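Protein in question kept in full:
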Amino acid sequence: QLQLVESGGGLVQPGGSLRLSCAASGFTLDYYAIGWFRQAPGKEREGVSCISSSDGSTSYQDSVKGRFTISRDNAKNTVHLQMNSLKPEDTAVYYCAARSSVVCRFYGYDYWGQGTQVTVSS
C-alpha cells in the first residue's frame, strides 16, 4: 500500500522553528517530485514548497522564501520541510504529496498524506 505520513507539527511561538517530515512507505520517493502544501481554516489549500526528483531543484511560495527549506533524504525515503522564523499566518494543516514526475510543480499530485497541524501562537 502506497502511503505518505507527515510528522513534526505542533504548537510553536512566533519566531520559532519546526521541522516537518514526510515518510513514504510502499514506494520509493527517489522517482517522485515531492510537494508540501498547507490549508488554513476557511482558506484554500496552497502550495508551499516542492523539490524535484532529478536534480533536487526546489521551488517556494513567495511568503516562505528565506524561511522554509525543503530537502530530501533518499536513504530514509523521507522529505523534510525546515520552517524557521514562523509567523502566525503560517498556521495551517500541512500536507506532503508525491507527483509521478521528475519536475517540481504545485499541481498534479498523485499521493497525499493525512496532514499535520502547525500552530504558531504566543
